[in-house]
Design goal:
The structure is a single chain. Helix 1 crosses helix 2, helix 1 crosses helix 3 and helix 2 packs antiparallel against helix 3. The protein has one domain: Helix Hairpins. A hairpin with a 2-residue loop joins strand 1 and strand 2. A two-stranded antiparallel sheet has the order 1-2. The protein is mostly helical. The chain has 3 helices and 2 strands; from the N terminus they run ββααα. It holds the Pfam family ZapA.
Amino acid sequence: MNKVTVKINGSEYNLKGDEKEEYLHKVAMYVDKKITDILKMNDKLSISDAAVLTAVNAIDELFKCGEEIEIVDKELEESKKEQRRLLSQAEDLKRHIKNLEEYNAELQSKLESSQDGEYLKQFEEENRRLNEEMEIIKDKTKQYLKDKNDLKSENKELKFQVQSAKYKIMDLQNRLIENQIDLVKMKKQENPLLNVK
């Protein structure tokens, strides 16, 4: 566990935590800046009032960030479901193409063994129909591949949004630590017998 002495709004405090010393200093500097900014906006505020305002703002952002993460998670889950559906559809199309190719080979084999002109006409008609169906399947496959690539791009964007939301949560956690420090400072000012240093 690391222990550092930091200065917030002119007073020194000892911070302890498992985080690195640089991180603890960064948190303290952030708290100091926020308290200073709030006091600059209204110099009639007490330290305790400034700490409460900082806490309210931090919790508000924390709640909003949590809601944003829930929305992004839902969008990501929907995107994954759509990707699974498209993959399943692609597999079905591949099986269908394979069946058509086997059927086409069977018809060609019958054609080679038959000298009947009527059968030849039937084969040609069936072959034409199969070729049209294969073209439709190829178009569907192209659309599937396009949809798949679109989903990959969307998934990448959603992952970025989730990462951004995680950073926001870390920032809000830092602010919560700041508020806790402010409360300790207020208690120190209210009761001079407490020695925080």
